[in-house]
Amino acid sequence: MKPVKIGFLGFGTVGQGAAIVLARNALEISRRAGREISVKSAVVRDINRTREAGLEGVILTTDPLDVVNDPDIDVVVEVVGGDEPAKTLLLQAIANGKHVVTANKALIARFGNELFEAAREHNVSVAFEAAVAGGIPVIKSIREGLAGNKIQWLAGIINGTSNYILTEMRDKGRDFADVLQEAQDLGYAEADPTFDVEGIDAAHKLTILASIAFGVPLKFDAVYIEGISHITREDTAYAEELGYRIKHLGLAVDTGDGLELRVHPTLIPERRLIANVDGVMNAVLVQADAVGPTLYYGAGAGAEPTGSSIVADIMDAARVASAAVDNRVPHLAFQHDALNDVRVLSSSEFSTSYYLRILVDDKPGVMADISRILGDEDISIEAIIQKEPTADSARVPIILLTRKMVEGAMESAIAKIEALGSVEGTVTRIRVESLG
Ligand code: HSE
C-alpha cells in the first residue's frame, strides 16, 4: 500500500518527539498500520536550528501553506498551539481533504465543534488524543473502550504543573511561588503559567473529556474554573492531618438534573489510588455503570509520551481514510446528530463537602459563632482542628471539614463568617470529594 505522508505544523519538542517515535518504531508501526508512515515536511520558525538526530530526511519550510496545500500530504499534525494561525491552517487542511491530528487542547475545547463540522463536510477526521493527558490513551479508552457504558462521573489530575507544585508543597513544605518558578525552569509549565496554575489548561482538557463521556457539545465557557494559587503549604499539611491530599482535579458529574463541570483544588482521601498520583504525572478516574471505576495513569506531557498519542492518531487516520464517515468512531464518541445539549449547573448548584480554614481571634465564643452560622445554613461539621496560638500571634487557624451540601448554602455561610469581627481576612474554602 502507498505510504501515508505526514506534514507537521510546528516542529518543537512535541513535533520532533512524534517524528522520532515514527522513525525509531517504523517497522512496528507499519506492521500494525499495514502501510508505511513517513514524515515529508515540517513548518519551523528557523530552518538553521539544530534538530534531533534521525530527522534529517524531513523537508523544513517556514511557510505553513507548503504543508497544508501540499497534495502529497495525507495527514497534517498541528503542534504549534494557540488559536491562530492554528485554526485557520487546520480548516484549510481539512478543506484540502487532509486528516488532521492536533495536540492543541485550547483549540479543540473552544473551536472543536466548528472543526468537527468542517471535517464531516470534507469526509476527513480530526484526532486529538494528545490534547488530554499527554501520553495516556484516555480519549480512546473512554470513546471506544467504555462505549457500552453509561458514564456517571470522571475526575482527572490533568495538569502536571499543578500536580507537581502541590506535591512539592506537601512533601517538602515548599511555598507555591518557589515551586512554580522551578516548574517553569524545568519546562513543565505552559508558556503562560497562569494557564496551568489558574486551572485554564485543566478546564480545556475537562471540556473535551466531558463531551466524550456524556455526548454533549464542547462547552468550555460553562466550566467552573479555580486554580491553586491560593493554596498554602499549611493547607496541604492540615489536609494530611485529616487523612486527605489536595489535588487539582477536573470533575465532570452527571447529576441527573444537569452536568457539573468543574476544575478546582480538591481534598481527596489519601487512601484513594488517584490521591497518590504525584509529581507531573496525570491520571483520570472514570466511574461507569457496567465496568465500575477505571483509572488511567501516565505521563501527561513530554516529547515522546505526547508523541506516542500523536502517532496512534496518525495510524487511526491512515486506517479510517478508506471508511465512510458514518462508519468511523465519532469525534465526540456519540454520533454528531445524537449529541444532547444537557444543562450545565451553576456553581451554587454543586453538591460537595468542604474544607474551611478560618483565621480567628483566640477568645471565647468565636467557635460558637461559627458553629451557629453553619448550623443556621443546615451545614453539618464532620471534623475540626484548632491549633494553639503561637508566641508571635494572637490569632489561630480553625480548620473544619463539613458534610456534603449545596454550594449556595456554603457561599451564604462564608459571607456571614467573614463578617464576624473576630475573623481575620477571607475564609479559605477547598472542596472535598470522596471519589468512592
Ligand atoms: N502544561 C501542561 C501540564 C502540559 O502541566 O500538564 C501538558 O498539557
Q: How does this model look, in words?
A:
With 436 residues, this protein is α/β, with parallel strands linked by helices. 35% of the residues lie in helices and 25% in strands. The strands form two sheets. Strands 7, 8, 9, 10, 11, 12, 13, 14, 15, 16 and 17 form an eleven-stranded mixed sheet that branches. A hairpin with an 8-residue loop joins strand 14 and strand 15 (395-402). Helix 4 runs parallel beside helix 5 (105-121), helix 7 (160-172) packs across helix 8 and helix 13 (366-376) packs antiparallel against helix 14 (407-418). The structure holds L-homoserine (HSE). L-homoserine binds at residues 134, 159-161, 188-190, 196, 201, 300-301.
Topology (elements, then pairings):
Blueprint: E1 4-9, H1 13-24, H2 26-33, E2 37-43, E3 59-61, H3 65-68, E4 75-78, H4 86-95, E5 99-102, H5 105-121, E6 126-127, H6 138-145, E7 151-157, H7 160-172, H8 176-185, H9 194-197, H10 200-214, E8 224-225, H11 233-241, E9 244-254, E10 259-269, E11 281-288, E12 292-299, H12 303-320, E13 351-361, H13 366-376, E14 381-386, E15 395-402, E16 405-406, H14 407-418, E17 423-432
Parallel strand pairs: 1-2, 1-4, 2-3, 4-5, 5-6, 8-10, 10-17
Antiparallel strand pairs: 7-9, 7-11, 9-10, 11-12, 13-15, 13-16, 13-17, 14-15
Helix pairs in contact: 1-12, 4-5, 5-10, 7-8, 13-14
Bound molecules: L-homoserine.
L-homoserine is lined by residues 134, 159-161, 188-190, 196, 201, 300-301.
